[in-house]
């Protein structure tokens, strides 16, 4: 529905993904079977839903989420992807630039997640006040895998091993490193200490910001984009209360929606005509900075305007569609876990616990009593963790 032949103005026919002859026999852009392109885009779509989940983590009813995902993919993601990436899409015809999903994936997921968080309503006050990572070492390991994986995320968007793909990879890492350092320096300057969580946020903001421009800007522009992505989202996250009334668990409104929108706008300024010509095989795409230099001011202003139109469309699409989906689900299922279930924990509702580290969860000691010195000595690892609990002797 995102890449098939035009069905209606904003949807494609899904035949490509279910027709074996097309999947195996049709070469996409002359380079590889269509099945490869279907898989690549399938993973993009899957990633986008995971990002939406980050905004409602810790309190959304799992059954409601199961219904939400296919509805959102069908009525939101595919419309955005068709409009921006399909040659028949209205934004694609207009000339919007989104190299690897800054609009389709990151602005969409950030806005959809934030909207869903509004309808699901916040977590418990206790969870909002204190929500440290379960394991910072694992968080950093995951962040490293994410950064490495983005090489394929942006580099693979050309569907070819080309000069544009090579530049996309270099720009991705340059922008991300610059963004990470910018965020880190702000943390140190303002809060007096570096933060592992801050480093990861800076990294993600940089990855997202470069995504719409990865293979279409020069390396110096990628550095500038890294500075922007490492400062403005840092400011909105740490120094404003604009978004705090909605419980966006992982702050994706800052690191994805805002960073993606900034990347899309800056792309409209710094997209190099030589590079856009290689990628799009057209001279009509030109950043405002190059347009002013070459006397094509109107073309540059038009490109910047198109980028803004694309962002506004994706924002409006996801606010409306996500709200309608949530309201529909509320008819037959609660969007949020009950207060009792939140007290137990959203993982234990399923009868499982994400991290069981030598019984370190306070809830496990709720009814715990040690009845004798002998028994206390028998369980030294437990005793070391219950100093704040009343110990009873027989």
Automatic annotation (TrEMBL):
Keywords: Membrane, Transmembrane, Transmembrane helix. It comes from the Eukaryota. The keyword Chloroplast does not apply. GO terms for cellular component: plasma membrane. SUPFAM superfamilies: Ammonium transporter (SSF111352). Pfam families: Ammonium_transp. This is Ammonia permease. It comes from Handroanthus impetiginosus.
């Amino acid at each position: 529905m995102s890449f098939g032949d035009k069905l209606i103005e904003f949807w494609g026919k899904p035949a490509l993904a279910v027709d074996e002859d097309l999947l195996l026999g049709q070469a996409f852009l002359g380079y590889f079977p269509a099945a490869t392109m279907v898989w690549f885009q399938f993973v993009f779509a899957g990633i986008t839903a995971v990002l939406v989940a980050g905004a409602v983590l810790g309190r959304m009813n799992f059954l409601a989420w199961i219904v939400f995902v296919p509805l959102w993919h069908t009525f939101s993601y595919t419309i955005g992807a068709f409009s921006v990436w399909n040659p028949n899409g209205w934004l694609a015809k207009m000339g919007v630039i989104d190299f690897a999903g800054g609009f389709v994936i990151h602005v969409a997921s950030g806005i959809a997640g934030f909207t869903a968080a509004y309808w699901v309503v916040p977590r418990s006050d206790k969870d909002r006040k204190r929500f440290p990572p379960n394991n910072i070492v694992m968080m950093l390991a995951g962040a490293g895998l994410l950064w490495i994986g983005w090489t394929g995320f942006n580099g693979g968007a050309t569907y070819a091993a080309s000069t544009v793909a090579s530049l996309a990879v270099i720009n991705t890492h340059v922008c991300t490193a610059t963004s990470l350092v910018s965020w880190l320096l702000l943390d140190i300057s303002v809060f007096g200490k570096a933060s592992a969580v801050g480093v990861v946020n800076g990294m993600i903001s940089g990855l997202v910001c470069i995504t719409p421009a990865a293979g279409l800007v020069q390396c110096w522009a990628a550095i500038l984009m890294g500075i922007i992505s490492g400062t403005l989202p840092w400011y909105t996250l740490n120094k404003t209360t604009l978004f705090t009334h909605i419980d966006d668990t992982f702050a994706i409104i800052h690191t994805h929606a805002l960073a993606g929108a900034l990347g899309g706008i800056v792309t409209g300024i710094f997209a190099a005509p030589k590079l856009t010509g290689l990628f799009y095989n057209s001279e009509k795409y030109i950043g405002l900075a190059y347009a002013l230099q070459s006397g094509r001011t109107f073309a540059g202003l038009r490109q910047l305007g198109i980028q803004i139109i694309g962002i506004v469309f994706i924002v409006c699409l996801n606010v409306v569609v996500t709200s309608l989906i949530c309201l529909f689900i509320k008819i037959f299922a609660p969007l949020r876990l009950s207060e009792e279930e939140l007290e137990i924990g959203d993982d234990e509702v399923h009868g499982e616990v994400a991290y069981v580290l030598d019984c370190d969860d306070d809830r496990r000691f709720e009814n715990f009593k040690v009845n004798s010195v002998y028994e206390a000595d028998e369980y030294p690892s437990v005793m070391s963790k219950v100093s704040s609990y009343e110990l009873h002797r027989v």
